[in-house]
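Lab notebook, bench 4. We co-purified these components, and the gel suggests they stay together. Before we commit to crystallization screens, I want a quick structural picture of the whole thing.
Request: model the full complex, all chains together.
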Amino acid sequence: SQTIHQWPATLVQPVGSPLSLECTVEGTSNPNLYWYRQAAGRGLQLLFYSVGIGQISSEVPQNLSASRPQDRQFILSSKKLLLSDSGFYLCAWSGASGAEDEQFFGPGTRLTVL
Amino acid sequence: AQSVTQPDIHITVSEGASLELRCNYSYGATPYLFWYVQSPGQGLQLLLKYFSGDTLVQGIKGFEAEFKRSQSSFNLRKPSVHWSDAAEYFCAVGAGDYKLSFGAGTTVTVRA
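Here is the predicted assembly.
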């Protein structure tokens, strides 16, 4: 069966520090991968998605970036965090067979920028 | 581009009572529709989905949803809620471009 992992689970970082959040999927090949941010009362905001290694699409311009160094690994990064980067970050995957596939979500990372 | 509206930010329901969560979407063609549930501090779990066919869809945990094209709606229902149904619920729409658009969510509180 497929599983999705995210780490760390929680993170407290000072403003201006770098960020690296990791997401790994097991049990599937060539998944579509997604990064979302969830702010209180605002639902889910799609940040990045990837349909293959090295293929990253950005949905919202900001100081975050994403990379996909391996088929089942998706990394969210920042060189300098802002206070507004605080939130709950969710990684998700879907099958590559069709756009109608549902997305499966990881447990999330709670990021607090102080 | 597609969009989703969940008109109710917060709903309080008594345990054992029925529940209905509203979802309206905007999309020119037949969309792919989903309902997800999120417990505090957790990821999202898929409750049910609609792609085509029967407009009444059954999901997990006793939930069902009905697709009404004329009303652009995909409302979620449960006949009798349990305390464990307290969570946040998200409606989502896909347009076949590998992306989903999510509503802002509805928080459900269950009182004893």
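Chain A touches chain B at residues 32, 41-44, 46, 49, 51, 59, 88, 90, 92, 94, 99-100, 102-108, 110 (CB under 8 Å). Worth comparing against the SEC data before the next meeting. Chain A has no helices and eleven strands.
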